[in-house]
From TrEMBL:
<dbReference type="Pfam" id="PF13714">
    <property type="entry name" value="PEP_mutase"/>
</dbReference>
<dbReference type="InterPro" id="IPR015813">
    <property type="entry name" value="Pyrv/PenolPyrv_kinase-like_dom"/>
</dbReference>
<dbReference type="InterPro" id="IPR040442">
    <property type="entry name" value="Pyrv_kinase-like_dom_sf"/>
</dbReference>
<keyword id="KW-0456">Lyase</keyword>
<protein>
    <submittedName>
        <fullName>Isocitrate lyase/phosphoenolpyruvate mutase family protein</fullName>
    </submittedName>
</protein>
<dbReference type="InterPro" id="IPR039556">
    <property type="entry name" value="ICL/PEPM"/>
</dbReference>
<dbReference type="GO" id="GO:0016829">
    <property type="term" value="F:lyase activity"/>
</dbReference>
Length: 256
């Protein structure tokens, strides 16, 4: 498939009630492994890519390294690749679009794009984030690429008290509408695990809703019944792999 065909195929995999499942990767090697396991598409996780290169999350990974990582994956795998782009490495719409263009140039067909103020406090106002989404959409349209912008809100991830999540749902729905109107293709709500709240957001969202698997989250079949259109695993696969690596190494070194 060429890049346009990959982008169209990726979008078509997002179905409410029949979600695409993305087991997040961090390099070309893990891309190959997950592809061989039966994946229909691939997605990086920012935390995992950063950690694999010795950096903390939060755009500490140099942008050039992120671009090179995406390029190394698309060079060896023929599946659609979405890149976790954090805050686009720019607060300004023009900078966000220019940085997204670098990922388009190396074959990526989509991004996760969050509304958290990276290296700052809180979230961008909905309209400010919508302006950045519009700029990325305009860039992609100018290249005739149906680029998949998975618009992420960190409302729930930023609130550690799960009992307060119900009070954030209305704002999340409004943000989702603003991001959809700006050109978003998906709505990502990491941190949300309450089934009733997930179902409400799915019912109100015109975009396929992305849920991230974490402790306490419903299983895949339950999320599908709630209307979810995309399920991802975030840093979970990396943490699992590193724990296994440490255990195996410890078993060897303990005998020396």
């Amino acid at each position: 498939m060429n890049q346009i065909e990959k982008a169209k195929a990726f979008a078509a995999l997002h179905k409410k009630g029949d979600p695409i499942v993305l087991y997040n990767i961090w390099d070309a090697g893990t891309a190959k492994a997950v592809t061989e396991a039966g994946a229909k598409a691939l997605a990086t996780g920012s935390w995992s890519v950063a950690a694999a290169h010795g950096f903390a999350d939060g755009e500490k990974l140099p942008m050039q390294v992120l671009v090179e990582t995406a390029k190394s994956i698309t060079a060896v795998i023929d599946l659609p690749l979405s890149v976790d782009f954090e805050g686009a490495y720019s607060a300004e719409p023009e900078g966000a679009a220019a940085n997204a263009a670098r990922l388009v140039d190396v074959g990526a067909i989509g991004i996760n794009f969050e509304d958290r103020v990276v290296a700052g406090e809180g979230l961008y106002p909905a309209e400010s984030q919508a302006a950045r989404i519009r700029a990325i959409r305009a860039m992609a349209d100018g290249r005739d690429i149906p680029f998949f912008i998975n618009a992420r809100t960190d409302l729930f991830l930023a609130e550690g008290d799960l009992a307060k999540h119900a009070g954030l749902v209305d704002e999340a729905i409004e943000r989702g509408r603003a991001y959809a109107a700006a050109g978003g293709n998906g709505f990502f709500v990491p941190g949300l695990i309450d089934p009733a709240l997930i179902e409400k957001i799915c019912a109100e969202s015109s975009l396929p809703v992305n849920i991230m698997m974490r402790a306490g989250a419903p299983d895949v079949k339950t999320l599908a019944k709630l209307g979810v259109g995309r399920i991802s695993y975030g840093p979970g696969p990396y943490r699992s792999m590193m724990e296994k690596l440490k255990q195996e190494a410890a078993a060897i070194y303990s005998t020396l």
